[in-house]
Input
Amino acid sequence: MGETLERPQRPARHRLDVDAYYKMAEAGILNREERVELIDGEIIDMNPIGSPHAAIVKRLNRLVARAAADGIVLVSVQDPLRLDAYNEPQPDLMLLRPRADDYRASHPSAADVLLLVEISDSSLTYDRGRKLALYAQFGVPEVWIVDLAGAAVEVFRQLKEGAYSSRERRSGGALAPLLVPSVAIDVAALLA
Output
């Protein structure tokens, strides 16, 4: 037997890019009722939105409405954020740099984000882990994770070598994004 047996290769994941992801939606493989996002080329099922989660999104939207009305920010609620060809999460709320076309030509990128907010109840570990690392990797300047069960807002700032070097947990007081200091919110009122 002079022939060499080939070593079997380990199974490899097939990563989907954003184009394939959208083609799946167009073909009806992913329907509009499914809440999914593309993270590192994988389609991730998102948890259903409960009433407390939805209420915080609405409350945040109301609290930042003045800045949106004044043209300081554009508010994006549960819309896609295009990070690269393999990542398109759908954060709960983003404050974006205003753009004349309101992002009709393309989804916002990390460079467009002034503040990104995730509301977490059952997804807290995932949001603090994989998603937070992803946001840091692509340079989202500030992330707030609203911990519903813990009644607190976790604030992540100061990117350093692809990670947030500043983490603060707040259950009260005024809180404003560094890039939009005029948008201050009362943390206790938000969580009430």
